[in-house]
Amino acid sequence: MSDTNSSCCSRLDLAFANLITRLWVALRLGMAGVDKFRSGDGAAATFNSVNYETKTGLIAKLMTENSMLPAFLPASAIDAYAHSIGYILLAVGLWVAVGLLSEFALLAAGLSFLSLGFGLAALPDDLELTANIGVGILLTAFALYTNRSGYLSVDGLLGRMRSKKKVIITEG
Known about the structure:
Layout: H1 4-8, H2 12-35, E1 38-39, E2 46-47, H3 49-66, H4 75-98, H5 102-121, H6 127-145, H7 154-171
Antiparallel strand pairs: 1-2
């Protein structure tokens, strides 16, 4: 018995929507992570760990001195967050791009965006950046919504392989 229903109901429009939004989320997170290693602009920009330490140190100082976060978070937690967020953004961005366990990857992406938004919202006068984070959260939610049609991912590839095995087992 062949599985004709699985091929009749595949919606390419949702698969493409999922791919595009998932890759946008991955790109946004990855570039935000890479930006933590950057100093300078244009062709003169350099990317290295010294820049990362400098930039994340400034972020920790800004969050400690100019936000309401020290009222309920210890300085060590703020410092740990600021010094690890670049690596977290890179790892989650790569995870989302690959599409392995994509629902959990997109959940991690949404929580990463949410943590960035929370940090920015605690600072005075960062309304524009907070709005951009909101767009990231909405697009992550859309990618999650269309994830059942995520055929163009490692999950989709593994799911197709499992479906073929089921068909072979039921036929044999």
